[in-house]
Design brief:
alpha/beta, Rossmann fold, L-2-Hydroxyisocaproate Dehydrogenase, Chain A, domain 2, three-stranded antiparallel sheet
Length: 318
């Protein structure tokens, strides 16, 4: 990394100012997470318009974020590059259907980023995020700890929201994770799910009105949420933008926060050489460590299936 943690100014280069990217920029500005945001897009006029529009709202935020239009050369001076560029998921299309076209886009993006002399952290949001995070690691040559995918951070947020609604408990007090591929093979970890400090399964035993079948339905709604939103309004962007802002805050605040991101496996959960969504400790240097949940036998099998699916998709390309 270029500078000591204490001396850094928080600078982000956002690549891709579509619905997700512009929503992320809006979240950053409103929360005052970074000092400087550089917006980059192949459609320069779109990026310039976003910069103007965001700056016009500064009088209402109280946050002095410097927002400006830029290009790949500007990546040399930033600490974090966030990639939201790529082809969008269309109705009826899975995230994995996007592999071929987005790999080509990412190769060009990362050649440009690394040619600038960039030596920070890269956060990937584009789908299929686990595949493209792996590709980013390969194309960039950066240490695996400094290449992070948004992973299942949004799935976990959806999960906690729906569980909180079901149990009538604030989502922030639901401690539960969705892990695996950010997609159809993901899985809920009910064996390590808690309401406060009480296991969810124990809580259900204490209250007759709760049923396991309802939990299965909640997970189905989590897994299929993107399809429902895409069908309704064409794309998902607010939720993931807030998730990206949360990861960004954890990095620049050096929080050591536990977030479910896509990380490179080196034997954890019995997996190697794959990026996949798991709880990780995130700080100013990227992924400090991967946290291994104690999965039951069924969960372990589902996680293995999810990892194998991703490896099969990756095999023809790497």
């Amino acid at each position: 990394m270029n500078m000591n943690i204490e001396d850094r100014v928080s600078r982000v280069a956002l690549i891709g100012t579509g619905l997700v990217g512009s929503s992320y920029a809006f979240a950053l500005m409103n929360q005052g997470i970074v000092n400087e945001l550089i917006m980059i897009d192949v459609n320069e006029e779109k990026a310039k318009g976003d910069v103007l529009d965001l700056n016009h709202g500064k009088a209402f935020t109280g946050n002095p974020t410097l927002i400006k239009f830029g290009n790949y050369k500007d990546c040399r001076m930033v600490d974090l590059v966030v990639i939201c560029a790529g082809a969008n998921q269309k109705p009826g299309e899975t995230r994995l259907d996007l592999v071929e076209k987005n790999l080509k886009i990412f190769k060009e993006i990362l050649d440009n980023v690394m040619d600038s002399g960039f030596d920070g952290i890269i956060l990937v949001a584009t789908n299929p995020v686990d595949i493209l995070t792996y590709a980013t690691w390969k194309f960039s040559g950066l240490p695996k700890e400094r290449v992070i995918g948004s992973g299942t951070i949004l799935d976990t947020a959806r999960f906690r929201y729906l569980l909180g609604d079901y149990f009538n408990v604030a989502p922030k007090n639901i401690h539960a994770y969705i892990i695996g591929e950010h997609g159809d093979s993901e899985l809920p970890v009910y064996s390590s799910a808690y309401i406060g400090a009480l296991p969810i399964k124990k809580y259900m035993e204490q209250h007759d009105k709760y049923r396991k079948e309802d939990l299965d339905e909640i997970f189905s709604r989590v897994r299929d949420a993107a399809y429902e939103i895409i069908k309704s309004k064409g794309a998902t962007y607010y939720g993931i933008a807030m998730g990206l802002a949360r990861i960004t805050k954890a990095i620049f605040s050096n929080e050591n926060a536990v977030l479910t991101v896509s990380a490179h496996m080196d034997g954890q959960y019995g997996q190697e050489n794959v990026y996949i969504g798991v709880p990780c400790v995130i700080n100013r240097n990227g992924i400090r460590e991967i946290m291994e949940l104690e999965l039951d036998e069924e969960e372990q099998q589902k996680f293995e299936n999810s990892a194998n699916l991703l490896k099969t998709i990756l095999a023809p390309y790497f």
